[in-house]
Design goal:
Layout (H helix, E strand, L loop, with lengths): L12 E6 L2 E6 L13 E2 L6 E3 L2 E2 L21 E2 L5 E20 L7 E3 L3 E5 L9 E5 L25 E18 L2 E3 L8 E2 L1 E8 L74 E3 L2 E7 L8 H7 L5 E5 L4 E2 L5 E3 L5 E5 L3 E4 L11 E5 L4 E4 L1 E4 L15 E5 L4 E4 L2 E3 L3 E5 L6 E5 L2 E3 L13 E3 L4 E5 L2 E3 L8 E2 L3 E5 L2 E3 L12 E3 L4 E5 L2 E4 L6 E5 L10 E5 L2 E4 L7 E5 L6 E5 L2 E3 L3 E5 L9 E3 L2 E2 L42 E4 L3 E4 L25 E6 L2 E2 L5 E21 L5 E8 L7 E2 L11 E7 L7 E15 L4 E7 L4 E4 L4 E3 L4 E7 L12 H9 L24 H12 L1
Parallel strand pairs: 16-17, 17-20, 18-21, 19-22, 20-23, 21-24, 22-25, 23-26, 24-27, 25-28, 26-29, 27-30, 28-31, 29-32, 30-33, 31-34, 32-35, 33-36, 35-38, 36-39, 37-40, 38-41, 39-42, 40-43, 41-44, 42-45, 43-46, 44-47, 45-48, 52-61
Antiparallel strand pairs: 1-2, 3-14, 4-7, 5-6, 6-13, 7-11, 7-14, 8-12, 9-10, 9-11, 15-16, 49-50, 51-53, 53-56, 53-57, 53-58, 53-59, 54-57, 55-56, 58-61, 59-60
Length: 867
């Protein structure tokens, strides 16, 4: 039985305060009421540097992205001494408080060592340094003796807040640390794990500007980035083969996991009461009917770094009114009063023939916007075939709560080795070139530094991929990726990572229809040009509806440098789990606790609800602790996807984590599909017989069963076979005599009539009797894992794994002279202590076939001599 109790994790919703506006991020919440009026986080999206070595490949920008989620930390090695991270506020500002968040784990609280927080206007911290916090009691960090107390990192992710008695005007904030100590341990872990640095300022303390000076505390616009070459349509990739005749699509059942999205499926964001520039911080520019700006482009032209642009969803943004170049840095654009819709006119030119929005600015955040209609018409004079809802040409873009549909590409990016793109809580559907050539996708991410893709729903790309990414690093967690439409316009891969890289694919739900493609995930298949070579596939649920056996769940380029680590995944459907690009079945570097080619009794597979149920014993509590990656990234899932585009916390319930993307929280009911194979006796001599019995270990309403049973016909011959007395009423529908001696027997039996199935523990079902056919040998008697059983309600349960037992034929006449004498004992004794693989090991002397010649083998012969 499993307990219904769950550990309560901290609420993982983060809210970053910018003046009176609140933007929502996964993580811990910072309530606006906790800060005095006008106080804002000036470190938000500001540049960060460090004098340490980053060990986990993280981008330092995550320390000022407003996200306090503990998964997004920077791992800094401190074996050679304390290290600092430094935030540049980009202007001298009156700092009133600082909040520092380090990695917080509710299960292993930790205390940081030598935490020091300093302020200065000198980037080298050689002059005018103000230390506002220091718990280095022995000056081991060399920054002076501190008198502040050490503190245990709050496990709710709230961090440590240092409030200054007197505001300090400073541009730079430097945070030192020298490792941390975990509860119950005595030695420090020699790395820092900062998650977020927040610097709150009071703009009311900024002196009034002199005549002719700007009243804005923030610096002017940053120079526009030099655009990188844009990705071409699709290098070296031909479209997947499609049927010559488009089949008539059958009606899809309404999915419980995929309700039809409404025009405004998320809560609206209320507009700010203030409009226009304000000396107290970022100004809010409003767009829409009756607002200051009727066109978004005009508001962007008037915006400065740090400003917020709000688009009223009641407005009509169509054609040229939707086309926009976002060429300002450090701004937030979001829809209010619903989801603002940007609609291009299919076939009519979008911005620069690239996208509805072309984002050339850096550090831009887009929230609560719908993008649709960016489709190049095949009769169009340009015939670009590569238009997008958003075309990304700047560095660092964050997208939240947006909807991209019926574009050539939902999102298409340039190549920028420094860029980090974060996409959360957003939906992508039916993107792809109108002629569906397979070269356009729901999302196409170019060769950037990192992609963070979480809590999203991407489905039904037109022959393209649900997600294609050439990023060097990728965190793809807690998403739902479904190919539902099928037929001629079915999606290609769920995820294509053609250049390899370091990728974390954790806690996702994948479905492939019976469409035009046969692989779900592909990795490195266009050449492993990225530096990273590791793919982590952890606690995902894969459902492949392709009926052919050549289907593939994970395809990997045949490259010895690539490593696939797969743990705790459910693979449902036909085909190979791992296969290379040439179609050869391969093995993963790590293949642990994965359920293969089974349906664990999902809640409602026909309607795409892949949650586990009380009958999913094969997956519940069967996972392993996935640990951390080679770079220290935690692999244990902490969230579950919730439709539509949301998530909830996931904690382990019971003895171990469940396999798949969802944790079951109820009580497991024992299933009829639990079977065992009894073999008696384990060793026989010539003339003796072996009885093999197939049992239902815990039969509950067992009405029918279908198994394949195998043995070694060169060692044993079948004497008799039939149903057991306790299986009275079952009808055998298959021939189990194995008259041809193939060693493979199909067992199909069922009750008949409207009667309940049988129930009970250790119910004998089928019995086989064998006798030795060889003088010496061993046979495995096995029920293959492809077997199934069914209850009287016609619910089917998979066996899930091979089960069985073995029997061997004893032969103590070692030298074959027809007698068992002392010379036979001597031959075994001289090889005593050898094991399989040793030079002196001889399998003929291993009486019981256990791979080792030991006292057990001597005892068998000794007993014969003593009779």
């Amino acid at each position: 039985m499993r307990s219904l109790r769950r550990k309560v994790l901290p609420l993982l919703l983060t809210c970053v305060l910018i003046v009176s506006q609140m933007s929502f991020f996964p993580g811990t919440m910072v309530n606006a009421d906790e800060q005095p009026q006008g106080i804002y986080n000036a470190a938000f999206q500001k540049p960060v540097t460090t004098n340490g070595t980053i060990s986990n490949g993280a981008n330092l920008n995550i320390l000022t992205d407003g996200v306090r989620d503990r998964q997004f930390y920077v791992l800094i090695d401190v074996n050679d001494g304390p290290k600092w991270c430094q935030v540049d506020l980009e202007s001298e500002l009156p700092v009133v408080s600082i909040n520092l968040v380090n990695d917080y784990n509710p299960d292993t609280p930790r205390t940081g060592r030598d935490i020091i927080i300093q302020l200065s206007n000198d980037p080298d911290f050689a002059l005018d340094v103000t230390t506002v916090f220091n718990n280095d009691a022995d000056n081991s960090a060399g920054q002076g003796i501190g008198t502040d107390e050490e503190y245990e990192e709050p496990t709710d992710g709230s961090g440590k807040t240092v409030t200054l008695e007197t505001p300090v005007f400073a541009r730079y904030v430097r945070v030192w640390s020298w490792g941390h100590l975990r509860v119950g341990e005595t030695e420090y872990r020699m790395y820092n794990t900062p998650v977020e640095i927040e610097v709150y300022v009071d703009p009311s303390l900024i002196p009034s500007p002199s005549p002719g000076e700007s009243g804005e505390p923030s610096p002017g616009p940053t120079a526009e980035p030099t655009p990188s070459p844009e990705p071409s349509a699709e290098p070296d990739q031909s479209p997947e083969p499609t049927p010559s005749v488009e089949p008539t699509p059958s009606a899809e059942p309404t999915p419980s996991v995929e309700p039809t999205p409404s025009a405004e499926p998320t809560p609206s964001v209320e507009p700010s009461p203030s409009v226009g520039p304000s000396p107290s911080g970022p100004k809010v520019l409003q767009v829409g009917p009756g607002k200051e700006y009727s066109k978004l482009q005009d508001a962007i032209n008037a915006a400065d770094p740090g400003d917020i642009i709000e688009i009223d969803a009641s407005g009509v943004y169509y054609g040229s009114d939707a086309n926009t170049t976002v060429n300002k840095n450090d701004i937030i654009i979001r829809g209010v009063n619903g989801r603002a819709k940007m609609e291009a006119i299919p076939g009519e030119r979008v911005t620069a023939r690239k996208g509805i929005w072309v984002v050339t600015g850096n550090n831009v955040t887009v929230e609560n916007i719908e993008f649709t209609g960016a489709q190049d018409n095949e009769d169009n004079e340009y015939d670009d075939r590569n238009w997008a809802g958003i075309r990304v040409e700047g560095t660092n873009l964050t997208i939240r709560n947006c909807y991209f549909h019926h574009n050539d590409n939902g999102i298409l990016t340039y190549n920028d080795a420094n860029a980090v793109i974060t996409i959360e809580n957003s939906e992508f559907s039916h993107n792809g070139y109108v002629r569906a050539d397979g070269h356009t996708h729901n999302l196409y991410i170019g060769k950037i530094n990192k992609l963070i893709f979480r809590y999203n729903y991407t489905h039904d790309a037109k022959q393209g991929h649900l997600l294609k990414t050439r990023a060097e690093n990728g965190v793809i967690e807690y998403n739902c990726m479904l190919d539902l439409d099928g037929g001629l316009y079915a999606s290609s891969s769920n995820i294509d990572m053609p250049n390899a890289g370091t990728y974390y694919v954790i806690g996702n739900v994948f479905r492939q229809s019976d469409g035009n493609n046969w692989r779900m995930l592909s990795y490195g298949v266009e050449g492993a040009s990225n530096t990273g070579k590791e793919l982590y596939v952890i606690n995902n649920t894969f459902v492949n509806e392709v009926p052919e056996d050549d289907a593939t769940f994970i395809q990997v380029q045949p490259d010895a440098s690539l490593s696939v680590i797969a743990k705790n995944n459910i693979f449902t459907g036909k085909g190979a789990i791992f296969r290379d690009r040439n179609g050869v079945i391969i093995s993963a570097a790590v293949d642990e606790a994965n359920l293969k080619n089974v349906d664990p009794y999902y809640a409602d597979r026909a309607n795409y609800d892949y949650h586990l149920t009380s009958r999913s014993w094969i997956a519940v509590d069967k996972g392993v602790d996935p640990g951390v990656s080679s770079e220290g990234y935690p692999l244990t899932p902490v969230k579950e996807y919730v439709h539509l585009c949301s998530s909830v916390d996931r904690t382990v319930v019971g003895a171990a984590i469940d396999i798949g993307a969802f944790e079951f929280t109820g009580t497991i009911v024992p299933e009829s599909s639990r079977f065992s194979v009894s073999v008696e006796p384990g060793f026989v001599e010539q003339g003796q017989q072996v009885t093999v019995t197939i049992k239902a270990a815990e039969a509950i309403d067992l009405y029918a069963f279908d198994f394949t049973f195998t043995y070694n016909p060169a060692v044993f011959e079948l004497v008799s076979a039939g149903l057991c007395d306790s299986a009275a009423g079952f009808q055998l529908l298959s021939d189990i005599s194995d008259a041809a001696g193939t060693g493979t027997i199909d067992i199909l039996a069922t009750l008949t009539g409207n009667v309940p199935g049988i129930s009970g523990a250790d119910v004998d079902l089928v019995r086989f009797v064998f006798r030795p056919k060889a003088e010496r040998g061993k046979s495995e008697f096995t029920l293959l894992g492809t077997g199934t059983s069914c209850d009287s309600d016609a619910r089917v349960y998979a066996l899930g794994e091979d089960i069985g037992g073995s029997a061997g034929i004893l032969n103590c006449d070692i030298n074959g002279d027809g007698y068992i004498r002392l010379d036979d004992l001597v031959l075994v004794a001289k090889a005593f202590g050898t094991k399989e693989g040793d030079a002196g090991y001889n399998a003929l002397l291993d009486i019981n076939y256990d791979g080792e010649i030991n006292i057990v083998d001597l005892t068998y012969i000794a007993l014969k001599l003593l009779i």
